[in-house]
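Worked example (supplementary).
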Amino acid sequence: MINDSTSRPLQYRYLYEVLRRQITQGEFKAGDLLPSEKDLYLQYKLTKPTIRQALSLLVQDGYIRKHQGKGSIVKPLPLGLGVMSIVGRLVDTATVETDEPADHAQQIISTQVLVPPHLSDFPANILFIPPEDDLKNQFYYLERLRSVNGEPVFFEKLILPSQHLPGLADLSFENRSLFELLRTVYNIVVQGGEQKLLATTATEPLARLLGVPQTSPVLRLDKRVDTNNNDFSYYSSLYARTDHFLLHGRF
Amino acid sequence: MINDSTSRPLQYRYLYEVLRRQITQGEFKAGDLLPSEKDLYLQYKLTKPTIRQALSLLVQDGYIRKHQGKGSIVKPLPLGLGVMSIVGRLVDTATVETDEPADHAQQIISTQVLVPPHLSDFPANILFIPPEDDLKNQFYYLERLRSVNGEPVFFEKLILPSQHLPGLADLSFENRSLFELLRTVYNIVVQGGEQKLLATTATEPLARLLGVPQTSPVLRLDKRVDTNNNDFSYYSSLYARTDHFLLHGRF
DNA sequence: TTCTCTAACTTGTTATAACAAGTTGTTGTT
DNA sequence: AACAACAACTTGTTATAACAAGTTAGAGAA
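After joint prediction of all chains, the assembly is encoded as:
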């Protein structure tokens, strides 16, 4: 039952995907004006409500900004992708550099899967608990360590409901965004969720993984992510060192 | 030029405010079904696009969840309000409590204004810098300390562009949400923004403010918040202790 | 009683239409 | 040359309409 809503193509979603791809692949660059609603009508033969719905999605996802009387302006792409992405940290919190630091310098993000996806019960020590009914089911559990330019930056646990994801264990998580995978392969899109944030100190195994002293402060971010499928939510727990890099997000 | 768009009442926004008030004031409780689109049509004499636009706003702001064929379901209210709110922390991160902890227990959030709003240049040590043009203007700067049940939890610096906010210094910031105030008094609504997150250790003055030892980890959250007014963005820098409470957000 | 199917709800998608309102460049006047 | 007014764009708001699709409860058959 993959992609069961492709039966009727959902035109506004189709247009969204087209424009989104054009933006992410650089066909439209930050600051550019998207074709006007009228142009899109002429090009795609879709009517105003449909086009507006597609553009609304792009606004919601932070790809464009609309300006009455002017047009739809493409926003700069989020750097890493995901709800929160990483950014090179300003040299010293006590001083603000006037000239932009090398935020946009080449950041090679690599992902190392420490524990490959396998079936398990819902793990302990997660700040969210699924509803009782879901606890009976099994979950895919995996752990990965993400590095920027070879330096470990954050350690992440992912817990996904298994019954909606046939064949997940076969797919590569290495260099693909989880969001991308869920949307394109399983037709599941993120619609919202909850997150809990706190600052702790690195415990021994974590400190070794991230390569920081045991006492250093570490950011912890737990999430429950809800999707268009009402009984599909996944969970993640993330530990990040933020001495050289910090978490960056749009909302 | 306050509330200049009240000239034409913007019916979908009006309906949004009505429903939103009914939800926040408990007239509709979590789990309730909102009146159907048809009922709203009968009651308010607004047509489907208008009603749907109002409901979409409520969805976007996390007040309701829509379910095709069923209706619009009221979601539980966010606890504190703001982009991120506070929540009582689970007793120990090493153990997950099966029974819900007292998250929803009475939390009396009080706000103490340490530095009342006054005109100043854009301060140093903020992780966001306004565009050069805006730096020429003056800003309202204020500092406040927010406590839960009398215990200091986070310290916040707020920087607001002064030219759009006549008479701001006269308004009380004490027990009113900044969002609420901007929306109702100045007709400015938050549309998005950026945030940067990191974990640090408390320095001496901060440690004293929050009542924590100097070495304890502290969460820092800097934001640039964009609004419907294109040249109105405000900035905030927040330091939170997360040993007894943690930050909680919806997205 | 239990099950199945249907009718009557609900929201979702798309089309057409008319006017309001913000932006920008151009035209024409001073 | 500077300015004002306008025309031609843009998106925003609201109305009307028809059909698709998910949900639910009740009627009727087994």
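Two points are worth noting when inspecting this output. The helical segments of chain B are 11-24, 37-44, 48-60, 132-135, 178-186, 204-210. Chain B has six helices and ten strands.
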